[in-house]
UniProtKB/TrEMBL annotation, chains A, B:
Matches recorded under InterPro entries: HypE, PurM-like_C_dom, PurM-like_C_sf, PurM-like_N, PurM-like_N_sf
CDD domains: HypE (cd02197)
Domain PurM-like C-terminal as annotated: residue spans: 184-330
Natural source organism: Amycolatopsis rhabdoformis
Protein family (similarity comment): Belongs to the HypE family.
Domain PurM-like N-terminal: 61-172
Domain of life: Bacteria
This protein's name: Hydrogenase expression/formation protein HypE
Pfam families named among the record's database cross-references: AIRS (PF00586), AIRS_C (PF02769)
Amino acid sequence: MTTTEREQQVLDRIERARRRRAKVREERITLSHGSGGKATHTLIEAVFLDAFRNPLLEPMEDAAALAIGGAQLAFTTDSFVVSPLFFPGGNIGDLAVNGTVNDLAVSGSRPLYLTAGFILEEGFPVEDLLKIVDSMKAAALAADVQIVTGDTKVVQRGKGDGVYVNTAGIGVSIRSGLGVTSVRPGDAVLVSGPIGDHGVTIMLARGELDIDSDIESDTAPVHGLVAGLLAAVPGVHAMRDATRGGVATILNEVAAGAQVSVIVDENAVPVRDEVRGASELLGIDPLYVACEGRIVAFVDGTQVDTALAALRSHPLGAEAAVIGRVADDPPGLVLLNTAFGGTRIVDMLVGDPLPRIC
Amino acid sequence: MTTTEREQQVLDRIERARRRRAKVREERITLSHGSGGKATHTLIEAVFLDAFRNPLLEPMEDAAALAIGGAQLAFTTDSFVVSPLFFPGGNIGDLAVNGTVNDLAVSGSRPLYLTAGFILEEGFPVEDLLKIVDSMKAAALAADVQIVTGDTKVVQRGKGDGVYVNTAGIGVSIRSGLGVTSVRPGDAVLVSGPIGDHGVTIMLARGELDIDSDIESDTAPVHGLVAGLLAAVPGVHAMRDATRGGVATILNEVAAGAQVSVIVDENAVPVRDEVRGASELLGIDPLYVACEGRIVAFVDGTQVDTALAALRSHPLGAEAAVIGRVADDPPGLVLLNTAFGGTRIVDMLVGDPLPRIC
């Protein structure tokens, strides 16, 4: 295939995507709608964005930017349905605190206040609830946030799965203007550490793979890491925490949102051996496997060295790496230069090979 | 029994309650922990408050009062697990929006921004989700709030019940100093309309009673009603929306929190005939049955006429009534002067005769 043919293919693809108005084709909800990938995006666009549309929602960032009475705030929420509830490195409690802390942090905010909503299943051991709540307490302390209000509901046995936790959070902006639409050609793409630890940990904890491993979830609050990066680098354009759908999903969101291409060097992506091995057995690219304490940062290319140094100076970013760059063409696509010297398109996650990962 | 004997009984009871440190005695979660009544309070105090304790959480009001960058904000959350999802007068969607709007409103705030978190069960009809989301859109419009961020998770069939919705909300304070601890002897107690409509509607919608009735849920946003009351009456001391656990639970929270007694005149409490009849069949006092669009207001006794007029001037308050007064003694108790001329203690709800009401 010549370059021209390939370009034409890409252009055709983009044009088809543009003509496609978001519509949920399925009559019923499937696990794929919760994957964070393609089906989730379609559901969100066709159902939620379409109904709730307003200028604060439309950027579809991890947190909404609000101006109230002179204060510049960020506001976000996440529900957590991870299974199992307890796993190496954490449990649903610290995951729920860190998840919302991280959504606020990567929006350029200092996380301040959290809510905690619990949906408990009848019969759930109070002792397990106490452990989860203790982890939330510790995670809130570590992230320097306060849980200021909450709610508790109970559903009958068989209508839940132990406990689901929702956290919402408010932060105060420390850097405005961050976001997908600020990403531009010439930006460098960095990750703050090895990817996929959380997702693989959950799969192993479910016993779905017969592997012994010491791997632990990377769940952690990234507010300090982010604050250090922002303090050192004026040219940070966007940050995301790579949860459901993994790094690949974020790169696709940025490519589509900023109408740029993102070109990733597979060899540069830090992946632990255990994660690579487990991913191979699962038949999934580590780029799609969730992290819960890793950020992806898009930074002015001229400041990449400072950015990498800033990330590496923080314990959570010790293994940070530059994994790619942003270019003009082809807009909307993520291209991977593979370890074998080829190039392939990295699309959004299709299906949900790893349900209930967070 | 002489007055002295009765007083001594009451004092003994209070002393016993004071000695009781909150502790969850059950090893496993029961539906009662979700009732909004006594078991819910114990769970919250023993588990959540004990772990998360901070000055913003401790007032245990419907919303936390936050000061951020010169802005005085209210922050709240609620998860909704109502069954059935659709019922006369509403569905889980408008219930979720109104519930959070109302928590903000009764805290003395103007509701501004909401989050929406969905936990969907695999197999849930997309058409039903669209209906729910449409109701949320309409409710947000009616309450003049914007849904600015959200989250969607999917759980396997049998791990949920169609859909659970969490909403969190931010409001901006329009009246500070409201709250349980501002209630004082001499205050009048008002309700904004007939109580128990929502709870009875849900029970009938479940087909648990063989009754034909036109009764509908009272789910509605009370922000306008509250704003009118606040504008007319400087002496509003506290407001609550009477949801799970009903009016009786709120009165108990206030009596305990302000260490006052609340004396209610049973004849003065507005209750529709259908609600009274259904409650009798269920063996439950309407005072414990949930409303979703009614407020209870504690107002300086000298301003009771203005307050009643202000409530009645709003469509949602047309049937408002003064139902009682606040006194010094016996502190911490709610006393009901019954329709038959007796007096009895109205305790918090014990057990959960109406699970998953919201």
